[in-house]
Amino acid sequence: MQTIGSCLKSGREARNIRLSEVAQSTKISKWYLDCLEKDEFDKIPGGPYIKGYIASYASYIGIEEEEILKQYDSCLLYTSPSP
Fold first, then answer.
1. CB neighbours (10 Å) of residue 66?
2. Which phi and psi (to 5°) does residue 5 adopt?
3. pLDDT in tens, 16-54
4. Is 12 buried (19+), middle (13-18) or exposed (0-12) by CB count in 10 A?
5. pLDDT for 7 beyond 50
6. Which long-range contacts does 69-78 make (Cβ < 8 Å, 24+ apart)?
7. What pTM value is reported for the model?
8. Cα separation of 27 and 78, whole Å?
9. How far apart are CA 58 and CA 53, in angstroms?
10. SS3 for 38?
11. More confident residue, 22 or 80
């Protein structure tokens, strides 16, 4: 199964879209987009910001937002520390 970052990156590259183009169109920092592609979510402001960035990025490159956000949510369940 692909990671969220690899899914975003491969989707972008398949459509021959530069990361700078995504940044300019979505108004999301190129650095944040690069972090998303590398699955480095800890370097991005948390909570709704990450989900919004993922959704905007996915929408721009033509990936179904709901599916990738479900994948992100399930990723959180597996990586959240137990109480």
1. 9
2. -60, -45
3. 999 999 999 999 999 999 999 999 999 998 778 999 999
4. buried
5. yes
6. 71/4, 71/7, 72/4, 75/4
7. 0.87
8. 30
9. 8
10. coil
11. 22
Quote the DSSP letter at residue 28: -
Contact 17, 26 (CB under 8 A): no
Rounded distance between C-alpha atoms, residue 21 and residue 2, angstroms: 23
Distance of CA 20 to the CA centre of its chain: 15
Which residue reads 């491969």 in tokens? 10
In whole angstroms, what is the distance from residue 40 CA to residue 17 CA? 21
* Measured distance between the N- and C-terminal CA atoms of the chain, rounded to whole angstroms: 28
Q: Which amino acid is at 41?
A: F
